């Protein structure tokens, strides 16, 4: 393959990554406290095959899993496991053109349905949970070989937001906005707490200074 760069060109390829999780029947996994079966995957928009330009995908799970680093070298780029907890995992994409830098994505594994206030929904616990994110891979000045590969295949386009296939978009955005809002509130609370502590310390220092001045007199 030619590694010569295609100057002044940027190719955008949309992908979707995330997970589907289902509640396991009781005692489905013998001698285990696992409660859910989940599949995490990365694929092209609308399920498009990405193996023509992705060489392999490395999924890094929580360290409590046996062999937490899983490498998948063919379509579909996905792994299935069981577990009981949610955690952040990384997804590293390496491309068929070795001169292209790999891309690492991060996904918060989601097992439970949540209400708007962040609590777990018990009413929907038996329904499959889907948590997908939309991402655009941007290849700036790609190699001539990769540029040819990408342009030889039809690049999927984003459907209208009203499309039923947009399950990854609205839900993921709502979840991320909720998490950002919660984090912002916690940061504000901590700022107020530390500001009050600082004010108290400054007042105590002023009192000490005042006492020292009285003693000197």
Automatic annotation (TrEMBL):
One of its GO terms (biological process) is regulation of DNA-templated transcription. It comes from the Eukaryota. InterPro entries: YEAST_sf, YEATS, YEATS_dom. One of its GO terms (cellular component) is nucleus. It holds the Pfam family YEATS. Signal peptide: none annotated. Residues 170-211 form a coiled coil. Keywords: Coiled coil, Nucleus, Transcription, Transcription regulation. It is found in: Nucleus. Gene3D superfamilies: YEATS domain. Residues 5-153 form the YEATS domain. This is Protein AF-9 homolog. The lineage of its organism: Eukaryota, Fungi, Fungi incertae sedis, Mucoromycota, Glomeromycotina.
